[in-house]
Amino acid sequence: xxxxxxAAVHVNVAADQPASLSNRFDPGxxxxxxxxxxxxxxxxxxxxxxxxxxxxxxxxAFDQLLARYIEPGLVRYIAxxxxxxxAEAERDAEVARCAGEQGGYWRVHRAxxxxxVFPREGPLALDALAKATGLDLASLSACxxxxxxxxxxxxxxxxxxxxxxDATPTYFFGYPADGQNAMTxxxxxxxxxxxxxxxxxxxALLNSLRDRQLRIRTDR
Length: 220
Fold this sequence. Notes:
This protein is an alpha+beta fold. Helices cover 45% and strands 17% of the residues. The chain has one domain: 3-Layer(aba) Sandwich (Glutaredoxin). Helix 1 packs across helix 3, helix 1 runs parallel beside helix 7 and helix 2 runs antiparallel to helix 3. The longest helix is centred in the last third of the chain and has 25 residues.
């Protein structure tokens, strides 16, 4: 977990959040999103592509989250890059965002975190990445050279700082609020916890939602 000496795990409900952490959260539109726009649960993950704990967490949780909740339309998943590990980490995030211009963000996400086929030391080789992910190298290189994805990337880092995210991976779980990706924060998870705490957090929100809907039907 970047920003800490161990992969400690902290899970909080909104009522226990620090006073400076808002119960409302909006990562904005310039983020990587998977899942249905009308999904009842939103999950935001702050990650760093050079973070070993992020890679461990992605390998443990991402595919299960995808199959169990995202693809069935229960969860809208949002990735916000927080390159805490310096210039190379920022460049990796920039490359992922540039890949998104070709519809390849999640292929790069998988290559860097889940498959982990590229070293975490030294610059990322764009030609090897493009070959591994089926991206157009010329377009990818041109995007990186212009730096046009740096501003939205740095907006994400500022958002992380505003919400006291100083370690990766960090998750926020909640319900949709006003705005396309806005949410009410119900739970918060920091650390490479594996898949079980992520599932527990999502299931708790789904159960609460079902209970609320049942009460509404009963009261009619």
